[in-house]
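Is EPU placement plausible here? Inputs below.
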Amino acid sequence: MVIRIPDYDITKHNTFGMTVKCNDWIEYDSIHDLPSIASEIKDKKWMHIGGGSNLLFTGDYDGYILHSRIAGIEVEMLDDRKVRVSVGAGLKFDDLIDWACTRNLWGIENLSDIPGEAGAAAVQNIGAYGVEVKDVIESVECYDVMTNAFREFKNAECAYGYRDSIFKRPENRKRYIVTGLKMILQYDGTANLDYGNLKSEVADNPTPSDVRSAVGRIRASKLPAVESVGSAGSFFKNPIVSRELYESISQDCNVPHYDVEGGVKIPAAWLIEQCGWKGSTHGGAAVWHKQPLIIVNSDGHATPNDVIELENKIIDSVRLRFGIELHPEVDHVK
Ligand code: EPU
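Reply from A.M.:
I modeled the complex. Tokens:
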């Protein structure tokens, strides 16, 4: 079934809670709806949305917004330790994690409580506590709006990187609609507790559900719940800088850092806090007082401009103080 609503208020479809509208909302619950939807929107302005948890609408959207309600879970035993789990793009990713943990399946428990849907998780390569969704993805199923054909991308073809994939490339954004993904989960996996203080939050011999609960406790202590305070999670990416720049900054202060391919990763939260932004407000927007990587809609009435102005002030001050360019992680939709 296809639901179409003209002049639709999408405030509830973006976790930032920006009060904006789109010209046409189209929601579908079967891949068989896609060929006719695609022929209608192909030459028009359109975008596909998931849970709207990584988006900043910079104003009303004068085009079509598509949303999938394909939310099934199918399981196939591969051997006595491994299963292939196929899910629809419209499934809430955290519902999948809950489902997997209840069945003692390992692989995605560290991603607990990240808002958003499975399709967007695969596009964005969501990550937390040392795990990225690419680690378990076998393939991503898409509809190609350009050729009117279904296509499956194997993991290696997705060109996964830090919050990045082939689906985020400008030429592919208006081409591929993710319809579902296949993941490999394990019955005999082991807990990945290497990130931060996760290990100290978990008892010996944990189950996937124990890890899920611990991640939930850590997140709740730092991150705003999107149900009560609007945000889009981390607003900025953690920058990767050259070793020379890191060394010159660390002459004056003790800089938290991680060695990664291509340089040194410095937490954007630390850079923003050093510039004095933690807890600051600008109009209805604010820098979250417990985790400055997150910009929130603090009074529920923040405008896109409040957020963008605060974003630019933060970027300017980090550049001025450290010579580091911050880049938003949140997609700005025009
Ligand atoms: N930090 C501060 N001040 C703070 C908080 C953190 O200086 O108030 C510094 C500390 O040095 C800390 C470091 O930042 O050790 C890292 O903090 P944290 O572990 O909270 O993680 P993050 O780098 O800020 C990333 C992801 C989060 C994910 C966490 C946990 C990005 C852009 N963000 O944040 O993802 O939950 O790691 O794995 O990579 C998201 O993508 O929306 C998201 C929330």
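Short version: Residues 128-129, 195-196, 222, 233-234, 237-238, 256, 267, 269-270, 273, 291-293, 329 surround EPU (CB under 6 Å).
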